[in-house]
Here is the input.
Amino acid sequence: MASPCVRDSSGACCDGCCPNPFVGHPEFHALAPKSPTTAASARKEFKLTTTTSLFPTNVHFTNHESLPSLQESYSNFTKVFPQYLMNDEADQVRSQHYFHLSLSNHVCFDYIGHGLFSYTQLQAPSSSSSSLQLQPPFFDVCYKSVNLNSQMQYGSEESELECEIRKRIMGFMNIDEDDYTMVFTANQSSAFKLLAESYPFHSNENLLTVYDYENEAVEAMVESTKKRGARVKSAEFSWPNLKIHSERLNKLLGKSKKRKKGLFVFPLQSRVSGARYSYLWMSLAQDNGWHVLLDASALGPKHMDTLGLSLFKPDFLICSFYKIFGENPSGFGCLFVKKSSASVLQSSTGAASVGIVSLVPAMRLSQMTEGSTSTDVEMEQGSKSELQKDNISPPEIVELETTNESTQSKIREISIIESSTKVECKGLDDADSLGLILISQRARYLINWLLNALMNLRHPYLEHGLPLVRIYGPKVMFNRGPAVAFNIYDWNGEKVDPALVQKLADRYNISLSCGFLVNIWFSDKHAEEREMVLERRCGDGDRNDRGISVVTAALGFLTNFEDTYRLWAFVSRFLDADFVEKERWRYLALNQRTIEI
Here is the structure.
């Protein structure tokens, strides 16, 4: 995994395209040069500029009607970050290939993973003259009754469609086919559970995870490994910045020479708080006898091109892909297994039904159900219901083993037509054309502007100007991820339910997500804040099930300034103490069904 921008290991390139894999780890500072680096100076200057130049000093916004206009805000934004104007190529890609985002007037802050295709491909007429009328670029997934160990040992017959998409994804992820094998899974949760069912926890008995939020896919892995006798432990995150509690994680990793510790599950950044973590944790884990699973689901496009992943190659890697950003989130998960680590996997009867899939060209529902029994359709719908529990919407599913001969014949016929169908992943092409540097810079400017703007909202008529918004995790910071976790507080200091914020945002055509921050560690200095901050996820009183429910917004490479401004303008409406009640009455006035909020 060669990096396009290799620098001296003591620093990172000033553009931030290749962040130093060692920065942020306590052991790094003893190795680093004593003199300030250019990169460190640039980061300090960036933070100072962001916090002092975007908005007038000591001026806060206390009324949503007093906000500067979109045009005025954009003008000031580009004066502070003139480099953003050099990123107009991304705006051109959006307007040409994803014009539905403007037509629908919808802002998407709830996508993770990578979009395979562009919206223009959806609009392109089918080139197939067959009566089956394939609808590129869509595909369906078909479950395979095979366990991961067998798949790794013997492989399976691969269609041209699968071959093309696999090669395109591995190229996009900057993963060498000589080093890794890629397996298609039904979704992200299936990929985690598949590995959990195949990993030898009877001998490598530990599972160690590093997440500052509740992740359904990881929870599925945890439950599976507990049933197999694994000892599950989690890293902790220091309040209030949510940095990794380095001392505890070092202890959990251990420094003995004992081999076969277990599986270390590590994301390079939090998709909820935007906190980023050092690559060095992967190296320390491997040095201490752990197998490493890198969760790349929250990484932005082209982030796999960074220097760190060319140095530290994990044993396993998981990511997810959906079809079209802002239009079709259905897709699949990908599990990558390093070939030199494949021998550790074991056969498992449970893993044969977890979710390894094949990709087949899409068919209309009428084509799939023609000649099928009612039982076939019921099984298909049942599979979709199971997938809806995951964070990727269910794709169309074909159960090869339950379909009758007529349906299997149609599937074979499609396979023949497929050989003449060229698969173009224009969504990945768009990200490739923009490149790591442009995408990273664009996201950096937008997320830090948004953070600064949110923190400048204050309730009126209060002596100390109670903040409307509380940010969790890193705030304005050069090297942070393009995601933010926050809560809104009313003028009484009471938190507005994140689910309510999400519903109201949806009425304004803004899609947000909700998350639950967990594994938070409070030092003695902040011990008094523990009871005020933490809440129970369930009513069982379990202290280990306590955390913070939050609203979360994730920015992608297609996000523009207007998107972030609209989110800021929406949040500012909560400065009106009657905003929620007004929304309730507005909904009634439109003679619509009242939704409990």
